[in-house]
């Protein structure tokens, strides 16, 4: 597939109120192009709740319900059931939440919906923090990253949310990046064709939150993949597959040094070594998972 | 061959009948007769039997609905909101801690103006653990934009639940039907069940105020400036006002179809009374016995059982209370203020009243206690009765 094959019709309209260089509008645009107009979306409290615009205007051209922070997946369960009782079976239900709404406050509802096998696609756009409230630490924030609630850098590792979703035995789990739109488009298209709960997590580097230049969003996202800080893979019915094989990874420093949130961490060679070791171990783990499950 | 239960069910379907059922099953039956499309619920004592029975109805095909076995009450209401937002008829049931967990979502349902119906089985709040009746759980939801009914018999529970769907859908507000833990939830009483087609006639499908529709996409609940926000919030208040008359209209229509009616306040011997008791739920029923005993002793008493708490029937309370000595019983407490019901009633009266906090944590409130409280009423404010026989 080529970029030209992605539909031209825009379901995220111009006039939205995202920051310049915002990754999430790029992500939402691609996801909605893949899902198409017959899609209903639920969005909790997050940047997307602001970016869509102020009432009575809207920057999203599909039915959209804004929901309380922790309820995205539960509301999607209800939407799915409501449509089913009316005999509507050709509408995609999309839960669209940030990492705070997914890893932390929304994990219970998401776990419940996944365990019930609710038929919907859950997309987590992961900017590794609570960005809407001004850069606070979340369960997705990487170790050593500065946030406004971890001034000296986060002391803990992030959770492995995709693995948590895989452990729910759902038919499809994938990671994606805004720097790889075709990969993202294809993953959403695949998820759309599968019945049950589908989970896609998109890395969304946030310029004001990660402290890098507004023009470098795609570059940072690309470097995340090239350094193996963010791996593109999918797990279909338990079988792992790597979608972007990085043979000669760049050193993790290349990725870290662009981001001011790691400015103290990169000065500490021990921390950089630790982060490099984590990334290497993660890749080995991923290759092992591919081997074991195929 | 059909079992006894199946024969019973078949009979109900065909001709309408009287069954002896618990308050909980009265709710399940009402949800079935109302043809709820989506039920999302979580178990909690003493509500659990409601959803167990609904699960059975759905699994054996008696009820054409989706039953979502959610992982919490918070998600139960979230799922009801999602379902209702597609235009489906949504129902849930809960109690006590479950209702408290839902609190945020109750505001959401009210704010979205979705006609979700819920049964709440009144139960005390933790800590310490206590599963018996108290009204504090639902009264803590006073300001959430939900219509609230309090019932005192299983027939009333069934009928009010059916009515609640119609009222909710006509004014676009969610409605809560309260029944008391164990005293009603687990007590068998006769219930006259209607014919299904009569309920269908009474409760036709109605378009919601708005819905999630791919052919007519809209964005709901987005950021709003105060200028819009205030109008949407005022819309809830206006709908509550509209509900005051709609509730009466629906009741009239209900009486025409089913021969039973329920005023917002059920009065017993109030007209010629010199003393009127105000109470909700079964204490209102128990008070009838106290009234009879008092009258035998020459005290002209009456009881006004408040069935409708939101919208609050202020005008009716004023006219019932006119020229009478007032005694209020609360089965709840707002710590630091006293009884919630007494506070509300006092706000519409222009004279003093006596009030008691009774039956906390399911402490029994026999008619003898009610009688004694009436006899020694002298303007006390929310005096706690902490013994069964004070």
CATH superfamily of chain A: Thiamin diphosphate (ThDP)-binding fold, Pyr/PP domains
Largest interface: A-B, 47 and 43 residues
Number of domains of chain B: 2
Instruction: Give, in order, the helices and strands of chain B.
Output: HEHEHEHEHEHEHEEHEHEEHEEHEHEHE
Q: Classify the fold: give the CATH topology of chain A.
A: Rossmann fold
Largest sheet of chain B: 7 strands, mixed
| Oligomeric state of this protein | heterodimer
What does the secondary structure layout of this molecule look like, with pairings?
The complex is a heterodimer of chains A (294) and B (390).
Chain A lengths: L22 H13 L3 E5 L3 H5 L12 E3 L5 H14 L6 E7 H6 L2 H10 L3 E7 L34 H6 L5 E6 L3 H13 L3 E7 L3 H4 L6 H10 L6 E4 L2 E4 L9 H5 L12 H25 L1
Parallel strand pairs in A: 1-2, 1-3, 3-4, 4-6, 5-6
Antiparallel strand pairs in A: 5-7, 7-8
Helix pairs in contact in A: 1-7, 3-5
Chain B lengths: L3 H12 L1 E5 L1 H11 L4 E3 L7 H12 L6 E3 L4 H13 L4 E6 H17 L4 E6 L13 H4 L7 E4 L3 H18 L3 E6 L8 E5 L2 H7 L16 E2 L5 H33 L6 E4 L6 E5 L2 H15 L4 E6 L1 E3 L3 H8 L3 E6 L9 H7 L7 E4 L9 H9 L7 E2 L6
Parallel strand pairs in B: 2-3, 2-4, 4-5, 5-7, 6-7, 11-12, 11-14, 14-15, 15-16
Antiparallel strand pairs in B: 1-8, 6-13, 10-12
Helix pairs in contact in B: 2-3, 2-7, 4-5, 7-9, 10-13
What would you say this structure looks like, in words?
The complex is a heterodimer of chains A (294) and B (390). Chain A has eleven helices and eight strands. Chain A is an alpha/beta fold and 294 residues long. Chain A has a single domain (7-293), classed as Thiamin diphosphate (ThDP)-binding fold, Pyr/PP domains (Rossmann fold, 3-Layer(aba) Sandwich). Chain A has an eight-stranded mixed β-sheet with strand order 2-1-3-4-6-5-7-8, sandwiched between helices. Chain B is built from 13 helices and 16 strands. Chain B has helices spanning 4-15, 23-33, 48-59, 73-85, 96-112, 136-139, 154-171, 196-202, 226-258, 282-296, 314-321, 340-346, 367-375, and strands spanning 17-21, 38-40, 66-68, 90-95, 117-122, 147-150, 175-180, 189-193, 219-220, 265-268, 275-279, 301-306, 308-310, 325-330, 354-357, 383-384. In chain B, strand 4, helix 5 (96-112) and strand 5 (117-122) form a beta-alpha-beta unit. In chain B, 54% of the residues are buried. Chain A binds chain B through residues 37-40, 42, 49-50, 52-56, 58, 60-68, 70-71, 73-86, 88, 91, 108-109, 111-113, 115-116, and chain B through 37-38, 40, 64-66, 68-72, 74-76, 78-88, 90, 104-105, 108, 212-214, 216-225, 228. Strand 2 of chain A pairs parallel with strand 9 (219-220) of chain B.
């Amino acid at each position: 597939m080529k970029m030209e094959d992605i539909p031209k019709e825009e379901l995220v309209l111009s006039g939205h109120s995202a920051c310049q260089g915002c990754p999430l509008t790029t992500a939402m645009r691609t996801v909605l192009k893949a899902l198409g107009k017959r899609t209903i979306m639920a969005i909790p409290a997050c940047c997307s709740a602001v970016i869509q615009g102020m009432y009575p205007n809207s920057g999203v051209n599909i039915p959209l319900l804004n929901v309380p922070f922790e309820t995205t997946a539960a509301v999607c369960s209800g939407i799915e059931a409501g449509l089913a009782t009316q005999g509507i079976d050709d509408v995609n239900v999309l839960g669209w939440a940030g990492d705070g709404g997914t890893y932390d406050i929304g994990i219970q509802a998401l776990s419940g919906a996944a365990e019930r096998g609710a038929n919907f696609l859950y997309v987590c756009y992961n900017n590794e923090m609570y960005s809407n409230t001004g850069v606070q630490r979340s369960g997705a924030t990487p170790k050593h990253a500065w946030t406004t609630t971890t001034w000296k850098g986060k002391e803990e590792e992030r959770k492995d949310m995709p693995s948590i979703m895989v452990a729910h035995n759902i038919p499809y789990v994938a990671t994606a990046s805004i720097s790889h739109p075709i990969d993202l488009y294809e993953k959403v298209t695949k998820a759309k064709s599968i019945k049950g709960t589908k989970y896609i997590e998109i890395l969304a580097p946030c310029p004001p939150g990660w402290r890098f230049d507004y023009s470098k969003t795609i570059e940072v996202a690309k470097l995340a993949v090239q350094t193996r800080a963010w791996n593109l893979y999918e797990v279909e019915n338990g079988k792992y597959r790597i979608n972007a094989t990085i043979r000669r990874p760049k050193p993790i420093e290349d990725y870290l040094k662009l981001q001011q949130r790691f400015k103290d961490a990169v000065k500490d060679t021990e921390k950089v070594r630790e982060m490099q070791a984590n990334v290497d171990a993660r890749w080995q783990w991923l290759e092992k998972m591919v081997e074991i499950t195929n | 061959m059909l079992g006894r239960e199946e024969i019973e069910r078949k009979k109900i379907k065909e001709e309408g009948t009287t069954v002896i059922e618990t308050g909980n099953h009265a709710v399940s039956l009402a949800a079935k007769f109302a043809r709820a499309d989506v039920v999302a619920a979580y178990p909690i004592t003493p509500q659990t039997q409601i959803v167990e029975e609904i699960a059975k109805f759905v699994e054996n095909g008696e009820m054409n609905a989706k039953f979502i076995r959610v992982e919490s009450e918070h998600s139960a209401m979230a799922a009801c909101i999602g379902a209702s937002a597609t235009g489906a008829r949504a129902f849930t049931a809960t109690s006590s801690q479950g209702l408290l967990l839902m609190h945020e979502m109750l505001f959401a349902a009210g704010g979205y103006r979705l006609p979700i119906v819920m049964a709440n089985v009144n139960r005390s709040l933790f800590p310490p653990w206590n599963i018996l009746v108290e009204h504090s759980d639902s009264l803590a939801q006073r300001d959430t934009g939900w219509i609230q009914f309090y019932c005192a018999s299983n027939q009333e529970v069934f009928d009010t639940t059916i009515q609640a769907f119609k009222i909710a859908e006509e004014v676009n507000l969610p409605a809560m039907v309260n029944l008391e833990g164990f005293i009603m939830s687990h007590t068998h009483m006769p219930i006259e069940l209607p014919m299904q087609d009569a309920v269908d006639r009474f409760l036709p499908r109605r378009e919601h105020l708005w819905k999630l529709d791919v052919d007519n996409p809209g964005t709901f609940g987005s950021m709003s400036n105060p200028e819009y926000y205030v109008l949407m919030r005022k819309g809830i208040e206006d709908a509550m006002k509209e509900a005051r008359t709609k509730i009466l209209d629906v009741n009239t229509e209900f009486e025409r179809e089913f021969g039973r009616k329920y005023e917002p306040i059920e009065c017993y011997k109030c007209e010629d009374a010199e003393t009127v008791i105000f109470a909700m739920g079964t204490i209102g029923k128990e008070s009838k016995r106290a009234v009879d005993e008092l009258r035998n002793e020459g005290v002209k008493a009456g009881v006004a059982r408040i069935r409708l708490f939101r919208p609050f029937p202020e005008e009716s309370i004023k006219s019932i209370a006119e020229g009478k000595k007032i005694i209020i019983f609360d089965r709840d407490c707002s710590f630091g203020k006293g009884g919630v019901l007494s506070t509300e009633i006092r706000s519409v009266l222009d004279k003093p009243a006596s009030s008691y906090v009774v039956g906390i944590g399911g402490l029994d409130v026999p008619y003898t206690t009610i009688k004694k409280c009436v006899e020694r009423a002298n303007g006390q404010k929310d005096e706690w009765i902490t013994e069964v026989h004070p």
